[in-house]
Amino acid sequence: MPRDHKTPLIKKIAKQACITYRVLKSSADLADSQSELIPLLTALRAADLKIAPRKSKPCSGPTGLQSPPVTYMHICETVVFSMGVFLLRPGASIPLHDHPDMNGNLRSC
Predict the structure, then answer these.
(1) What pLDDT digit, counting tens, does each position of 62-98 carry?
(2) pTM check: above 0.90
(3) According to the model, what pLDDT value does residue 21 have?
(4) Where is the signal peptide (predicted)?
(5) For residues 29 and 20, what is the distance between their CA atoms, to the nearest angstrom?
(6) Which of 17, 30, 41, 74 has the highest local Cβ count within 10 Å?
């Protein structure tokens, strides 16, 4: 997908998510409504959000200070959708869980 460098990709995703989820009335509409959103999400890279892996620091003290296994980075929230990024350390995971009456898109970078 060619990049339009005038508008940041994350802003394009937010705009399309608003369009996609504003008109969603049932899960049957979901596949059709996401046809423009999914390619934008697929093109997203960590660099688009200016995210880079932390450099390893030596542990200090007897227990060693470590970053948490999962960190959440809030991007934006509207009445239609919420967008954020979960940053996971290598080997970390988020347990499978449910959010009733919500739809979501996941992208692993």
Answers:
(1) 555 677 889 899 999 998 889 999 988 889 988 888 8
(2) no
(3) 85
(4) none
(5) 10
(6) 17
